[in-house]
Amino acid sequence: MSIFKNKNFTKKEAANESLLKSLDKKQIRYVSKREPDGETIIGRNGCLNVADGELIIVCNNEDVFRGKLENIHAAFLMSLDGVVLTHKTETEECTYVAYYKYYR
Question: Which segments of the chain are extended strands (E)?
Fold first, then answer.
């Protein structure tokens, strides 16, 4: 915990940041991008990485998504099988769903 805190940094933002950091090194089956007409799979067999204040989704040795942590909102799926990531930029808002890999 730091001595100097940003007044605008709320509990909600702190919880979101800790959720995003907990996703580091998480193995995923596939990632889809939600669009108005449905979901499109953009990558398979990858992992979520958090580095240098960015969330990076790597599938088959390619970056399929990269975004700053402060621009991303994360929420677990109700089944806890994955996570929904909402990325906001100045021009648009994109939603991605990453489904975790199972080890049975």
Answer: 26-35, 38-51, 54-59, 62-68, 72-76, 82-88, 93-100
**Angle 67-77-60 from CA coordinates, rounded to 5°:** 50
How many structural domains comprise the chain? 1
pLDDT tens figures, 77-87: 999 899 999 99
Taking the model in full, what pTM does it have? 0.83
How does pLDDT run across 26-49, given as a tens digit for each residue?
999 999 999 889 999 999 999 999
Structure tokens at 64: 């399929």
Task: Specify if 82 maps to a domain.
Answer: yes
Structural domain for 83, as ranges: 11-100
